[in-house]
Each structure stands twice: as structure tokens, then as C-alpha cells.
Amino acid sequence: MLRIWLVSLIVQTRSCFAADFPWPAAEFRGVWVATVSNIDWPSSSHLSTHQQKLELGAIVDKFKSLNFNAIVFQVRTSGDALYNSSLEPWSTFLTGTQGHAPSPFYDPLEYLIGKAHAAGLEVHAWFNPYRARAGSTSRSGLAPNHMANRFPSHAHAYGTNLWMDPGSSEVQDHIVNVYIDVAKRYDVDGLHMDDYFYPYPVSGQDFPDTSTYHVYQNSGGKLAKADWRRSNVDTMINRLNREIHAVKPYLKFGISPFGIWKPGHPSGINGLSAYDSLYADAKLWMDRQWLDYIAPQLYWRIDPPAQSYPALLDWWCQQSTHGRHVYTGNAASNAVTKPDWSVQELLNQIQISRNKRNELSLGNIQYSAKYFMHNDKGISTNILSLYKSPVMTPPMPWLNVPVPDMPQVTGTGSSLSWAGDSTGHTYRVVVYRLYADIWEITSFLDAHTTSTTLAEGEYAVKAVNRAGMESNATIVHIKNGAFNIIG
């Protein structure tokens, strides 16, 4: 009897302090799924609807199994749409002909959101803003409602691509409308912009925006051309931030700029200047709090001093003076395809990012999905050594979304249930299990799910809002068919 009493006392004492055991550190574990040129999905523009769905489902299943928690899905490669849009034509990368809808009809973005959310993964819709056509400077073959045909005087051949003029107010308005349309109609978790602002420079060519600049000057504008170009991009970023959050305050707005703001920042860094060549002043955007996260593309190795991964990451973290998150963009592609790289290099980079958690380095986004789908050079197998169990994406308290109430759990034996949240503040319910004095996530449940069945053990049930803010936990102990709430 004494032994039984002591065991019971130990369990009760442990349970009293269960909520004090460490919770898993939140970390953004994202992957870019590129659709331009069929890089990641669909594998061909001639697949059937059924085949496309199978491939999307396989992507979700793979990254859930690797304990990722976010898919950054390219929905607009070059004035096109991989979703059902009244503003822009269906992408040629989806159906082989721009403007042709999938047949039988389905909406890839809607389909992905359903699959990913059921698996506990966020979906961030990724847009390329100004590129009008990749690999061709011609408007021939573009659908009538393509932006290059709607605004032909602002569509310019530059290098091997067709590009829209960021200085055109018509182009700016159209791009903002495209973003807001997706924000309104789709249950995405975030909206994402990549590194293409003004195009990467082509030797011997200046971007042909002289006429737009003259219009600006004739209206009384005094900025030098380079400053005017930066101002055009700044205006776009500021508008997107304000208008996206006006539609849905919880939406996460992120940008993945080129990894070097300016050479010499930090000291010793050389390379292309995003500030001077792409007219992208990401430092200003962070200073003004015009984004929720930044994902600088640090596609260099750790050691070379001219583009040092840790030195650049330090610099980007130092720019986050208002608490905005830094999710490093990593080149998984380099780890697989470049002889002077290795998968271990990538793992080391992720660990370096983790070591700077106190400096708001809170995750990574991998480019791109196909290398993990194929497990090239064992990259998927190896990343599980770091991504050992699921975690939440980092919370964003500044989004000012109400924190949900703690779930009021009841149960019989191993079956738990709780009331649905009538306030609408709950996005999902997360169930943790206590393993060796550490909590680990066992399941993500959507807000409509109000019950679950669990094996014996000690569990915590929390409600989470769209900004990643968690409620207090209800602690539950299940043993020998008995159910007890202990905290």
C-alpha cells in the first residue's frame, strides 16, 4: 500500500508542475514551392487535374512528415494566376496555355490550403510583382487580360524578360488589387513577395522608364531617378502592408529580399547592392514596420568572408529593431547541386539561425521543394536530425488578434472533448504530450474539431489564434482508463 501511495504522490506532484516543463520553441520551418517554369509544381504543364492534385497532396504529406510548418506557394509568377482569378489569366505553367483553366476545373490554391491546413501547415501565397514574362520579351501569346496587354505602354523588354514599370500608378494599383483579391477570397495565412522589384541589372542596359520619370518630374517631383525608383517600391510595400491588414489583421506579410542590402553592410561584405541595383530598401521597410517578417536570401556558405552567412544574418537581425521576425532564406538547391557545398553545410546554417533566436532569428525557408521531395543527397533524411518533432510558427503579438480562451476540456476515459469557440478567436487547437519532462506537439486540430482520443499519458490542450498566440493550457492525465484534469 505504501508503494502505491508513493507512486500516486509522485504522479500528482509531477502533474502539479507539468505546465512548468519547457514548451517546444516556436520556429518557422518553411519551404518555397516554385511554379515558374514548373520548377517544383506541377512537374509538367500537361498533367491532368487528377495528377496535379496528387502532386500537391504529396508535397503536403512530405513536408508534414519532415515536421515543416509552412508552405510558401508561388501563385503568381509573371502576371498570371495559379488560382481562380478574375483579374489575371490562368498560368501557362498550369495548363500549357495562358488563360486556359484546368479541366476538370479546380482551384489549386484552394485545394492546397485545404490539404495543408488539415495537416497543420500554414500556406503563404507568394507573388512576383512586376515581372510580366519570364524568358521572353514579347507580348505575343499573352492572354488579353494579362497586365502587359492591359497596360502596354508600361510593359518593357529588359534583358530576356518582359517587365512592368514600377513607376506606373496603374501598374501599382493593379498589383495591390491582385494581392487584396487573394487576401479577401482565400484562407491563406500569409502573403509573400520575392526579391524581384526593379529587375536585376543587365550589363549595358538601363531600365526603360524615362517617360514615367519625366511625368513625375513634370508634376513637380524633385527626387533623383534612383531615389524616385526606390520611392516607387517603398510606396508599394507600404500600401500592401496597410491594405492587407485592413482586410484581415491576422495575415502575415513577408518579403524575401536579396541577401545583401548594400556592400559594406556589414563590414567586409561585397556583392550586388539590392539598394542601388534593385531599388529595394529593405532596411527602411523594417524600420517603418511595413512587414511582419523578412526572409533575406542568404544563398552563400558560412566561410567566404565576402558573403558570409553568419555575418549577413547578424546584420539582418540587427535591423529588426521593432521585433519583426527574421526567417533566413536558405539555398537547399546549392547544398544538392554545387560541388563546394554539402547537406551538412545547410544543416550548419540552420543551426546558426537557431543560435540567434534571442536576436529574432526565428526560422528558415528552404529553396526549393523538389530537392526534399526527391531526398537528393539525403537532404530530407538529414533535416529530420534538426526537425525532430512538430513546432508552432512564431507568434506575432503586434497583429493585435485576440488570444483565445483556454479550452474547457471534459472527458471519459481516453476521450476528450471541449466546447467550440463562439468568439471566432480560435484558429486551431493544439494537443501536446509530456515526454521526459518536455512537451511535444502530437496533433494540430482545426477550430471546428471539438474532440479527440488519446493514449495513456499526460497532455496539454491549447487554443491558438491566427497570429500564433496560444491560450493557457488545460493539463490532462490519462491512466488506466481514468481521465483527470490536473491543471
Question: Would you give an account of this structure?
Answer:
The structure is a single chain. The protein is of the alpha/beta class and 487 residues long. It has 2 domains: 2-21 and 400-485, Immunoglobulins (Immunoglobulin-like); 28-394, Glycosidases (TIM Barrel, Alpha-Beta Barrel). The protein has helices at 2-16, 49-65, 92-95, 108-118, 147-150, 169-185, 210-218, 225-247, 274-278, 282-287, 309-319, 332-337, 343-355, 369-373, 379-383; strands at residues 28-33, 70-76, 122-127, 131-133, 155-158, 161-164, 190-193, 252-255, 293-294, 325-330, 361-367, 409-412, 415-418, 428-435, 438-446, 451-453, 457-464, 474-479, 482-485. The strands form 4 sheets. An 8-stranded parallel barrel has the order 1-2-3-7-8-9-10-11, surrounded by 5 helices. A 5-stranded antiparallel β-sheet has the order 15-14-17-18-19, with no helix packed on it. Strand 5 and strand 6 form a beta hairpin. The radius of gyration is 24 Å and the shape is globular. The two termini are 27 Å apart. 44% of the residues are buried. Residues 1-16 have low confidence and may be disordered.
Helical stretch tally:
15
Beta-strand proportion: 15-25%
Kindly identify the CATH topology of the largest domain: TIM Barrel
Low-pLDDT segments: 1-16
**What overall geometry do the principal axes of the alpha carbons give?**
globular
Number of domains: 2
Task: Name the CATH architecture of the largest domain.
Answer: Alpha-Beta Barrel
**CATH H-tier superfamily of the largest domain:** Glycosidases
Q: Calculate Rg over CA atoms.
A: 24 Å
Q: Strand order within the widest sheet?
A: 1-2-3-7-8-9-10-11
